[in-house]
Amino acid sequence: MKRMMLIGHTAAGKTTFCQAINHWELKYKKTQQIEWINNAIDTPGEYVENRNLYRALLVTAADADLIILLQDCTDDGCIFAPSFATMFTKPVIGLVTKIDLASDEKQIQRAEAYLDMAGCRRIFRVSNTEQTGLEEIKAYLVEQGIFAQQDE
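^ thats the sequence. predicted structure below, dont judge the formating
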């Protein structure tokens, strides 16, 4: 089975995205270590927030077929350096999260610009709590072989 690896700031919505895409109940849970959840590798935010832990991301990425960088649109800062995606030998896409909490379109566009600068090939917008944008990203993941089939 192919896998996606989720990377993002603490509370960017990585675990919640795993729950939402699998149609599970959404429960906040602080990820303390790398977790394998069905077709996803959920990484703690600290792994991208601390450069000394980048090695753990690189080693873990060997087991992934697709890397997804998550950027919370309500977060003014960006954790990803320019061209961050080039450190991986896998395709890298971006996910703008929490679009339901954006005060305006500019916040979402800023998050997209951060992900573009990081080197994401394609960028999706989602709200895990409102289920917005999940069908589009799931269709893409089906296309990439991460999910075997699209849910009805």
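The mean pLDDT is 93.
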